[in-house]
């Protein structure tokens, strides 16, 4: 009786979704056709797996069902040629999921950012903002199925940046605090909580003029783009220096 050859362990695969798409297999970059990229990214956002029908419907919403299903089959065939150990698992020949040996940067980054967003987190990143707090989820893609996941990670990342800035500020590390706060402002220029944190850092350093200048820049931008004033909370932060009651309407 011929013995069964031992199964080879799966080759590690790393899927990058932050900042843009990338795939490495056994630490080597692998080219993935655009349609197959979308399948991998879609499955990365559905870790529990999803049906073939739903995947085809969401990935090719403008095509008839038969053509969308054919597009999915073609993309899966192309993926099967990229790794002899398989990147996609077909559960019961009806549900698709990424193979367990595929590492996804988004999942690790989201877990990290969620932990940092809690002010009681024990560790604080150093003076350089970690890459996973700088990058957005597939920023150049415009697919509808991606919108909610991108916004979820975007908000989690912003909360983490602001929380880390607060921790650095309270510890007196103003340079680091300003870096994290400004990274949040750059990611979401109209986000008031990020601008308040920048202003609080300036005040913590005793730079009142800088704090007032930043507040005025934000106030003008907010009025120009949304027709709104800064919140009373923001004005109260600067009330001792504004020369008017904290709850008074801002100047036009």
Automatic annotation (TrEMBL):
User: What top-level branch of life does the organism fall under?
Assistant: Bacteria
* One Pfam short name: BTAD
Recorded hits in InterPro entries, A to Z, give: AfsR-DnrI-RedD_regulator, BTAD, TPR-like_helical_dom_sf, WH-like_DNA-bd_sf
| Domain Bacterial transcriptional activator residue range list | 104-242
Decide whether keyword Cytoplasm is in the record: no
Which UniProt key words apply to this protein? Two-component regulatory system
Statement: the UniProt record of this protein carries the keyword Hydrolase: no
Query: Which PANTHER family does the annotation name?
Result: TRANSCRIPTIONAL REGULATOR REDD-RELATED
Q: What protein name does the entry list?
A: Transcriptional regulator
């Amino acid at each position: 009786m011929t013995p069964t050859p031992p199964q080879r362990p799966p080759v590690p695969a790393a899927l990058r979704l932050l900042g843009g798409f990338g795939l490495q297999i056994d630490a080597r970059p692998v080219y993935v056709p655009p349609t197959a990229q979308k399948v991998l990214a879609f499955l990365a956002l559905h870790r529990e797996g999803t049906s073939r029908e739903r995947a085809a419907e969401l990935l090719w919403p403008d095509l008839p069902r038969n053509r969308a299903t054919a597009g999915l089959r073609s993309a899966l065939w192309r993926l099967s040629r990229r790794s002899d150990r398989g990147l996609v698992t077909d559960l019961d020949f009806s549900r698709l999921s990424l193979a367990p040996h595929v590492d996804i940067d988004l999942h690790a980054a989201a877990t990290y950012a969620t932990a940092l967003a809690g002010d009681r987190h024990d560790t604080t990143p150093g003076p350089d903002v970690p890459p996973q707090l700088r990058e957005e989820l597939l920023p150049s893609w415009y697919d509808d199925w991606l919108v909610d996941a991108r916004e979820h990670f975007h908000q989690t990342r912003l909360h983490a940046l602001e929380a880390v800035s607060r921790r650095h500020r309270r510890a007196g590390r103003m340079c680091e605090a300003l870096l994290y706060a400004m990274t949040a402002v750059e990611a979401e220029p109209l986000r008031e909580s990020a601008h308040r944190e920048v202003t609080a850092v300036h005040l913590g350093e005793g730079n009142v003029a800088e704090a007032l200048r930043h507040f005025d820049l934000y106030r003008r931008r907010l009025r120009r783009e949304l027709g709104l004033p800064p919140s009373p909370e923001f004005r109260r932060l600067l009330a001792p220096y504004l020369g008017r009651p904290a709850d008074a309407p801002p100047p036009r």
